[in-house]
Design goal:
CATH topology: Rossmann fold
Mean pLDDT: 97
Helix content: 40-55%
CATH architecture: 3-Layer(aba) Sandwich
CATH superfamily: NAD(P)-binding Rossmann-like Domain
Distance between the termini: 16 Å
Number of strands: 10
Number of domains: 1
Low-confidence stretches: none
Structural class: alpha/beta
Bound molecules: NADP nicotinamide-adenine-dinucleotide phosphate
Amino acid sequence: MLGTDLVAVLRAAGHEVVPLGRARLDVRDPVAVRQAVRELRPGVVVNCAAWTAVDDAETHEEEARAVNGDAVAVLAEACGEAGARLVQPSTDYVFAGTGRLPYAEDAPTAPVNAYGRTKLAGERAVVETLPDAGYVVRTAWLYGAAGPNFVSTMIRLAAERETVDVVDDQHGQPTWTVDLARRIVAMIEADAPPGIYHGTSSGSVSWHGLAREVFTLLGADPGRVRPVPSAAFPRPARRPAFSVLGHDGWARAGLAPLRHWRDALRAAWPELVA
Ligand SMILES: NC(=O)c1ccc[n+]([C@@H]2O[C@H](COP(=O)([O-])OP(=O)(O)OC[C@H]3O[C@@H](n4cnc5c(N)ncnc54)[C@H](OP(=O)(O)O)[C@@H]3O)[C@@H](O)[C@H]2O)c1
């Protein structure tokens, strides 16, 4: 989902891009990863490959870690050898989500599920291996035209069901993949200082509040979205309740925080319902 939009945004900005989907490069193959970086000699690598099946990671943590942790470590080494910068998307799930204030970039991490642990392994590999050329960009609640996501599910359910039950005790920052892609490009172009950044929209909302906004944009009655607690939808992986990230880090790069999630959703809307 992010990779598709990133390629389009990079090309629109005039950058030369070599997109490597899974068919061209399995990131779990260290020989192939090293060879790709050596041969392509990129200025920047953005690693959009990831194990993103959060619930499946609970029972397949080693497999998830191979993609989200081990492969990132190899890629970071290869980038170091080639003199390339590396941008590694990560997740709000590195935090426990028990806070009440937005998590700062340097707040202590404490993942509550396997996916979060594997993504944290990837973060650490980038920060330790590439202190002068590594970027970790934590994002969350992504939606976009190129993949199944919460917003597309709500658009479908609005047409299929009279009422929809949505959890109202998890808060986060819905983020449009195009906004994140543009931010990654801006960060690269600004030659931002290496380190950890929070690539999520401003503001925050519950899943229930987001679903209500989707119904409103559809011209449907938002009252058809009924609030329920997370306990109503037991899932294998625990989710942090408070996934709100702080954005002070962007000032280091001379960039403003991303726009408010509601403005982003409105901007994305034509693409989402096309
Ligand atoms: N989606 C969210 O809400 C969210 C939230 C927080 C953080 N993030 C992070 O943001 C980044 C982008 O997420 P996304 O939603 O765009 O992910 P996505 O749509 O699930 O895309 C992940 C891509 O990685 C590929 N991939 C998986 N294993 C691979 C391997 N071994 N070698 C090569 N490619 C492989 C997948 O290919 P296949 O389709 O063939 O499996 C897929 O194209 C990820 O780092 C993710 O952890 C996402």
